[in-house]
């Protein structure tokens, strides 16, 4: 039961944030306050990210909206990586545990996007599901690499 508690906590946080409108989640006022000189603007202006059939860039959205976009997508990647690790930890040990954790995380990502689609002013995105799943896979691969390095190190001793 103790292994499920961290998973439940992160899923509750995702559920609450998915139920908020875009205005409630806006980071732009905070970014304007914290980054008044628009640091790295010339560097960030190089990037154009395809998303939902448009190119997201500083030219298209402005500096603060672009930085907010990067933070939001980075949060998707990172947070679903944490969810994958929490699922992996909660699962019993078996041969395909990593694969099961990746698939379950993808299913949670789909459920999260569906929940977002029910929130006013929010839409579901298959690109976000793919980003969430990629974050999960990367964290599980990192975990696998760490486990392999530990095994090699203990085998040498």
Reported for the largest beta sheet, the result is: 2 strands, antiparallel
Helical content, roughly? over 70%
Span between N and C termini?
Answer: 34 Å
Shape: globular
Radius of gyration: 18 Å
Query: Which segments are poorly predicted (pLDDT under 50) over 5 or more consecutive residues?
Result: none
In terms of DSSP E residues, the strand content is under 5%
Description of the molecule:
There is one protein chain. With 157 residues, the chain is mostly helical. It has one domain. Helix content is 73%, strand content 4%. A hairpin with a 2-residue loop joins strand 1 (49-51) and strand 2 (54-56). Helix 1 runs antiparallel to helix 6 and helix 6 crosses helix 7. The chain starts with a helix and ends with a helix.
Brief synopsis:
Helices cover 73% and strands 4% of the residues. It has eight helices and two strands, in the order H-H-H-H-E-E-H-H-H-H. A hairpin with a 2-residue loop joins strand 1 and strand 2.
